[in-house]
Amino acid sequence: MYLEAAEHLNNVLNYKKGKARVFYLKGILENIKSNYNESLNFFKKSLDYSESIQYKKGIADVYIAFGITNYDLSQYDEALENYKKAIEIYKVLNDKRELVTSLINTANIYSETGRFNEAIANYKEALTLSEVINDESGTAFVHGNLGVLYSRQGNYPLAIEYYNKSLSYDKKTGDILGMAKRLDNLGESYASIERYDKALEYHEKALTFLSKTAHKTLIAANNSNIGSIYLKKRAYTKALEYFEMSLKVSKELNNLRQIAICYAQLGNIHLLQNELLIARKNYVKAKDISEKINDGRILSASLLGIAETYLLVKQYQKSLSYAIEGQKITEKLKLLENQKKASRILSEIYKNRGDYKKALTNFQQYKILNDSIFNKENIEKITQLEYEYKYKQALDSANIRELKLTKTVLDTSQNLKRSQRNLLLGIIAFLVTTLILVAIIFFLKLRNAKSKTQNVIIGQKLLRSQMTPHFIFNSLSVLQGMILNKENRKSISYLSRFSKLLRIILENSRDRTVLLSQELMAVENYLALQNLENERYTYIISVEENIDTSLFKIPPMLIQPFVENAIEHAFVNQSKDRIIKIELNFSHQELTCIISDNGIGIDSLTERKNQNKKSLSTTITSERLKILSKDFKKKGSFTIEDRKKYNEQGSVVTLVIPYIKNGTE
């Protein structure tokens, strides 16, 4: 309903960026409802509008949406291609939050297709970025996906640990869909270690949450998982019921991978019930679909299932061809369970055909694989027990330490009571003397530290007192005008930006240094706020690729005075094509900020009257940089030039900023 209203307003205003956003959100809505074809159509319309106005962020977002939908449709190559396109754009935009999303989605595909090393590399890069930008949601999502990966590798205790980390965050934020996914994952993990009742408990909880979201894809997957548990418990009727439900929904959604899984599992049920023709029919359907979507795991299982149906009716030649084909895939993907099954089937075929040498070779391979899987399962169980043992051991150790500490305290107390009075008085006298000496030393050091930093503090206070009152007065005046003119939306936007900038200034003012990323955020908010009323000028902020803004710490409020001077003085009698450009470079261990404009130029400006304010800010900044250079032991200076010497218009400020780099302090 709200999207329709937004679309109407965008059409009235012919606001293309708004149209692109509406179609993007409509596509997401249809994807959630599993209407994938409609979803893709909306994303295509969004992409067309974003490309028509060169809206880079919108283009990248749509590529991510395409990739997610391709993944849901088991179109893995197309999904990877779309994610790569998005990653390239987000890197140019230096959008770390969206880079996290792209890396996670890429890793999901690598994990799904068995490329685990590439998956882990992408997940860990995403986890590092999430922690850098303090993105708890991204961290939780990575934990969930790492759980999936470790589960596929058979490390179920570690998988359960990561699932629970992710579930804790989803509970904290009330993310129903997230909780449903993690509960489903936990159910799969407990089923893998044969704790079927606990697994069913988690899957049923997941279905409760999924029924509130109407997410058909996940409901189908969850029903399939429950069916697998009943199959392992040999409750074939219940297993059939759940796989049929999953198959029905998956067909409605055209979810090819889930359809193939259901057919393969139905084949397994009918094979166990000796209904060979029905089993083979289902295996063939699973084989055809898995070949189409290039899913080797399902394909190998289907081929071996077909081979077994022919083996049981003594059609050894047909059984042999399917078994050999299935064995090749299992060896390529290192699927131990299916390799074991292939060796068993081949041993039986060769024995019945009289080729005892090959029969023996395959039987020996079967035994080796069976022992390997047995050992692997034992290792997994040992690992799980080790986790539980270490936890109990830690609790026991803590209790023992507590008892020892209590005994020590009691013994010490009794010893103190038995101590002679003169010894106690001597200790007290010694402590008092020590405290007095420590207080004197501390006072001297504090006075020395204050004297060293006093000049820096004074310089910072002078600069802030110069900018803040004047800026706040002007901002409130503009806001008052908007409110009087009943420009409600504009005034709300202006107030939001103003409060955000004010908060950043107040936070930065408490610190001796701030991250370069925070300083640039403050400058960008200041420029946006100045420009919000009537878009008086264009501003550009560019950061050289070799600069990681999350590593550099600089003194706060160094760049802003020069930007303020450019805004207030550079564009006298110039109403159009006003540009302010801020460039950050790092070369020869110097961090340089170049602030340029295309205004009247510094030479013309100095000839005009009433330039006291600029002279004052320049003088204060110059003195402040001298003090900071000594404090940081890094060069700090600035120069102001008229661009006419370069046959250009305007002024350019070259500011060399003292800095501290994290990891090198």
Task: Sum this structure up briefly.
The protein is built from 25 helices and eight strands. The protein has 665 residues and is of the alpha+beta class.
- The radius of gyration computed from the alpha-carbon positions, rounded to a whole number of angstroms, is 34 Å
From the N-terminal CA to the C-terminal CA, the straight-line distance is: 55 Å
Morphology: extended
What value does the average pLDDT take?
83
Please give the CATH class of the domain at 454-661: Alpha Beta
Counted by DSSP, the helix tally is: 25
Low-confidence stretches: 378-392
Q: Percent helix among the residues?
A: over 70%
Structural class: alpha+beta
Strand tally is 8
CATH architecture of the domain at 454-661: 2-Layer Sandwich
Major sheet details: 5 strands, mixed
Describe this structure in words.
With 665 residues, the protein is an alpha+beta fold. It has a domain at 454-661: Heat Shock Protein 90. Helix content is 77%, strand content 6%. The protein has 25 helices and eight strands. A five-stranded mixed sheet has the order 2-4-5-7-6. It has a three-stranded antiparallel sheet with strand order 1-3-8. Strand 4 (579-587) and strand 5 form a beta hairpin. The two termini are 55 Å apart. InterPro entries: HATPase_C_sf (IPR036890), Sig_transdc_His_kin_internal (IPR010559), TPR-like_helical_dom_sf (IPR011990), TPR_rpt (IPR019734). This is Tetratricopeptide repeat protein. TPR repeats lie at residues 60-93, 100-133, 140-173, 180-213, 220-253. Residues 461-533 form the Signal transduction histidine kinase internal region domain.
